[in-house]
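pipeline/complex-builder :: batch 7 item 3
reading input block
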Amino acid sequence: MNSHTRQRVVSVGLCVIILGFMTSAACADTKGQITDRMAQRLGALNKAKADGKIGETFDGLVEAVKAESLGDKELKKLVQDENADRKAFYELGAKEVGAARQTFALSAGKRNFRVAKPNEWLKPNDGKWIQKKDLKS
Amino acid sequence: MKYWLLAAVAAALLAIHGCSVKHEVEVEPVEIKPIHITMDINVKVDREVDAFFNEVEAKAANAPAADTQNSIGDTNE
């Protein structure tokens, strides 16, 4: 490989790397975009919680209380989209604050357990679903 | 007399040796991170999480009427 070719390869490589960084930065969600999507979904999420179909987990995510509920495609998408956004926030927040992602997730779990309504379902770290009113503090 | 002299010389030598010995102990500074740093991060995380979910709820509450039919304010099902 002569010097001219080598120069070309290095230049192209650098361009690819720079473009890659720019693309990834452009694609990364901002907190505002995440909260916008979650706000649009909140009504449906709260209804599903009130109906006992989904609940909050100790690590800051939502899950179907009964696995068969996920046969409902809309509910499945709701859960998937909500968890994707929450995980994106935990990742973002962890980088900003310099904490572990799991720290954010667990803090969110605690917060959501605290604000849950009495009839809503919660899943502590023992894996058993329990209603808020039956949760021992 | 000789023995006294010898003993004195030996004692003097010992004293000189004892005085000339130096002990240098190097102790590397031990870094102990203050506990309050860990607690401060947890407090910061809790605040960030609270602020985030509160923002979601505020945005949902401010959304157009059609989207707030089943909002958090609606507790009567």
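note: Confidence is low (pLDDT under 50) at residues 66-77 of chain B.
queue -> next item
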